[in-house]
């Protein structure tokens, strides 16, 4: 295709979209035109009628149809542009049936879906998915009425089970989560908090005999503080746990002595009989049902073509014939369209087509970077420091300690709560002999970090094995901008960062708020801390090295092809490396970003909620200069390492060849109903998404987010908020004042925490959006 033809084609696509939108608006205002159903034979029976049929269909694309499709499926209802559109009924050969509203071949609006098993769903649909308010009734009697998002119960809903149980409350991703009431068939009921389909948090269980338990729960059983009350007024108050060593409490009689022999462990055996019914699974999701392609004679041997924005142009070639744009006919409609095309061509010529050309340059995977870090072996300048660190961690984590409860006293967060331990080379009764230099070891708030590791489900043995095992640590080749050094464990699970004294003070000051925040929000995106320690080396300098142990965000089964550090500021926010030196380990910045990330709706809603909560927490702690670290794994690439675009969502009924390489609807449908796979993904970890390429109009620093091009790539994303230990101290205030004289104050990183939080969120919510 010549350059001129490609320009004309681009202009035609723009004009075609405008005219189709105008037709839809006209149909919605003046109603639709219906004609008698016709078949392929009707069109081809008489060559003399071909031109008449073509002209008539160009005016009457919205009509009633009744068709038996090639695979045996049956459809009757309104039809538009080769797809069901409007009200219609579709019957699949396997017995599934849908009656309701359609939009461009997808169930959209209100409708009813029936399965051959007798199960039914009646309610709202969106883009082929059960989405909105609706009622599902299963074949064995299960029923759910409430809110849905992408085939999953999400929001408030009421479910009655076939065994007589019932639940009324909040749902998330298909499971009970939030506030809700579950009533068993025998009349006992629980009212309180839920998480991932289990009783978790604070709530009350009431038996039919009047007894009740009020308190904390974990995975369906009492855990933590709680009170068991009898109907006669006596009660037992204490700390509850499945582990007898953790359980303790006091019994208070009401006057009679009838319950003195009661054992608190009996409560657990009693509750084990009350399980949460999982209910029925939807046998076949409506979004998994594909439409058979109906090829009209007007489209025979006219393949679909990808538009510049990545969408498949439905009926493009037919529209070419009907408009007769390149012929000698000079009808009024053709003349008007020709004028629109000329105007569009002039506009495109004026812009020089630079963005159009550049947007179609193929993207390639960056060259793979080497394994990060240099192994610290004997002779390395920090070899003794590494041995000291490993000895201290092994001592801190391995020593016996009482079982940690997640309910901590304020004294546990006191910065003065620290333990010094001397490690001479010959050893002591508390420390082993070693070959390193003598040193002193300090643990900051040990009980808090022990509880954090428990909260983050970190196994102590695995933790010690990663950090203190036979494998040496790796030191990153260059220190960070702050001057800190970073070390990685050999399994890439943990990162160790040396700390300035000011950062240590900030972490200790905000530790209580941090603990409460990550405990309240399991999916918090802020970096996870596992320990804060200090090594004091013997010698004339008495050097102190403080360090924090964090989770390594990019430890994943997926290789990370691109890394971005995003703050929402523009000054200096670009990499200083030439293109030839950029590899998969290079950290790119705001102005290097050339994508918008589209998350599935349920994930996007959770993402925006969590970003808001995390930013509110950091703002309250007067923290600024943090960033969202983002890693991208591209799912599809050619042998030549060229990225394969996925295009936009393909209309239902396209062949695999037309659909191209993308995360298929069936893959999404397999993922959505399986809670175990959702749990393994977690917000910010191994999340499927689509990355839409963007192009900037200019190289000015004012434009952080470019214009979408419609070019999509299937990706897996990893992200989290890092660098949360910089408060708005006097040095940052001076930096802000100095740079504000030279640059736009809103473009610099050092700003007031409130302004920083607002700017950060505004930028992130432009870069991330929902995949409609």
Automatic annotation (TrEMBL):
<keyword id="KW-0547">Nucleotide-binding</keyword>
<feature type="compositionally biased region" description="Polar residues">
    <location>
        <begin position="29"/>
        <end position="38"/>
    </location>
</feature>
<dbReference type="Pfam" id="PF01504">
    <property type="entry name" value="PIP5K"/>
</dbReference>
<feature type="region of interest" description="Disordered">
    <location>
        <begin position="22"/>
        <end position="57"/>
    </location>
</feature>
<dbReference type="InterPro" id="IPR002498">
    <property type="entry name" value="PInositol-4-P-4/5-kinase_core"/>
</dbReference>
<dbReference type="InterPro" id="IPR017163">
    <property type="entry name" value="PIno-4-P-5_kinase_pln"/>
</dbReference>
<dbReference type="InterPro" id="IPR027484">
    <property type="entry name" value="PInositol-4-P-5-kinase_N"/>
</dbReference>
<protein>
    <recommendedName>
        <fullName>Phosphatidylinositol 4-phosphate 5-kinase</fullName>
        <ecNumber>2.7.1.68</ecNumber>
    </recommendedName>
</protein>
<dbReference type="GO" id="GO:0090406">
    <property type="term" value="C:pollen tube"/>
</dbReference>
<keyword id="KW-0808">Transferase</keyword>
<dbReference type="GO" id="GO:0016308">
    <property type="term" value="F:1-phosphatidylinositol-4-phosphate 5-kinase activity"/>
</dbReference>
<dbReference type="GO" id="GO:0005524">
    <property type="term" value="F:ATP binding"/>
</dbReference>
<dbReference type="InterPro" id="IPR003409">
    <property type="entry name" value="MORN"/>
</dbReference>
<dbReference type="GO" id="GO:0016324">
    <property type="term" value="C:apical plasma membrane"/>
</dbReference>
<dbReference type="GO" id="GO:0005829">
    <property type="term" value="C:cytosol"/>
</dbReference>
<feature type="compositionally biased region" description="Acidic residues">
    <location>
        <begin position="43"/>
        <end position="52"/>
    </location>
</feature>
<dbReference type="Pfam" id="PF02493">
    <property type="entry name" value="MORN"/>
</dbReference>
<dbReference type="GO" id="GO:0009846">
    <property type="term" value="P:pollen germination"/>
</dbReference>
<keyword id="KW-0418">Kinase</keyword>
<dbReference type="GO" id="GO:0009827">
    <property type="term" value="P:plant-type cell wall modification"/>
</dbReference>
<dbReference type="InterPro" id="IPR023610">
    <property type="entry name" value="PInositol-4/5-P-5/4-kinase"/>
</dbReference>
<keyword id="KW-0677">Repeat</keyword>
<dbReference type="InterPro" id="IPR027483">
    <property type="entry name" value="PInositol-4-P-4/5-kinase_C_sf"/>
</dbReference>
<dbReference type="GO" id="GO:0046854">
    <property type="term" value="P:phosphatidylinositol phosphate biosynthetic process"/>
</dbReference>
<keyword id="KW-0067">ATP-binding</keyword>
<dbReference type="GO" id="GO:0009860">
    <property type="term" value="P:pollen tube growth"/>
</dbReference>
